[in-house]
Design brief:
By secondary structure, this protein is of the alpha+beta class. Helix content is 50%, strand content 20%. A five-stranded antiparallel sheet has the order 4-3-7-6-5. A five-stranded mixed sheet has the order 9-11-12-14-13. The chain has a two-stranded antiparallel sheet with strand order 1-2. It starts with 7 loop residues before the first helix and ends in an 8-residue tail after the last strand. Keywords: Kinase, Membrane, Phosphoprotein, Transferase, Transmembrane, Transmembrane helix, Two-component regulatory system.
Amino acid sequence: MKWRNASLRRRLLIWLLIPMLLVSSLMLFEVRSNAVHSANQAFDRALLSSALAIADRVVLIGGQIEVDVPYVALEMLTSSAQDRVFYQVSTAQGEFITGYEKLPPVPEKSMPLLEEPVFYDAEYNGERVRIGALSRYVASARMATRFHVLVAETTGTRESLSEDILARAAVRQFGLILIAALIVWFGIGQGLKPLVRFEEALNRRSPSDLRPIQHDVPSEVRHLVGSINHLLKRLENTLSTMQRFTADAAHQLRTPLAALRTQAELGLREENPDKLHDVMEKLAASTRQTSHLANQLLASARAAPEGLAGRPFTRIDLGEITRSVTGAKVPVAIERGIDLGYEGLNGAVPIMGDATLIEELLKNLITNALTYCPEGSSVTVRLVPEADDAPFVKLVVEDDGPGIDLEHRKHVFERFYRVSESGEDGCGLGLSIVREIALRHDTRIRLNEPEDHSGAIFSVRFRLAPDENAN
């Protein structure tokens, strides 16, 4: 099992046990050092006592040092059968007097040997030994001299004692870790119970239940629940848009498709070429209208504020888009005998938005003007700065056509609303799409009647994007 797929309980347990094991290892290392130090302190006292007992039996006779080593001086060190004891008495100049001649000497760093005893570790006859060294004066009536006493003991008992202390400490440490692991394992299980209940609550929900989750969870999980609620909200909006699109498509396409079928069946039965040509013209017109309706339905779904186009806004050039879309519509305007032109800003006009939706907005406004204006009319697209110091720009589409009566003006932005006496082919979605795209860009579409002539003026106000080089 990969680490990223491991259970949360196992992850928490591992992240807890690894530091505990590291800390326990450091503590055991310290325990070992303390155990060795304590064992040395205890046994070094016995070495010192033996060295003092031997030093007390050193005498100076006729200028020669003589020693009568007492049995009790060595007996006090032989409490353990596994350890052996060695001793040596020598002059301050290193001349051997009695004992074991090959005992390791006092290290150079501890020389010269004075009144204070010295203890050091060494190796003698292939065994590790602990040696205690002592220096004393011996005097007679005519002279005085210094001598050294070395008492050595193998370290078996010391090592056994320190290892025993370490083993007991290790057992306690690992026992504590085991108990902590068990407590954590079951404790995490209890701590995760709210998540289990949360999972059960989600499993009980039906696929259509996209209400926000109102469930008590630990504070660490609240952000996750918030993200899930945000996702559910977006899913609800998306499903709402899809359902609306499906309902609209089913409602609006049923009649045109039935008409297409009827006209096709009439064409199949018609034998007169002239009448067949008329049927085919009607069929082609109905096909264009149905295609236009389908495209408008798709554009409406994309433009809905809660809809399918959930892409984040980017920095776009409104001036370039406006000039490009206006130029693309010029051939259509020429074909209908309408003067289409652009006025206003010629440089870059940066805003934050969706370029595809802005193009759709402008196409619908221009197409709407070209559709309802008679031959000889003029349509003008403008980009106008709102004021010198205001961070806004206004997109205006103005025409001098018949205009929109007051009774229809408050309804023109509704879905599928059409002016009944207009006589133009349309599906009533163009201006509603413009309104929804404007809402997605946090603005509004306004309809103003010109004061000095007939026609209509549609305007959308956009906030300029901040300068990229500004701090």
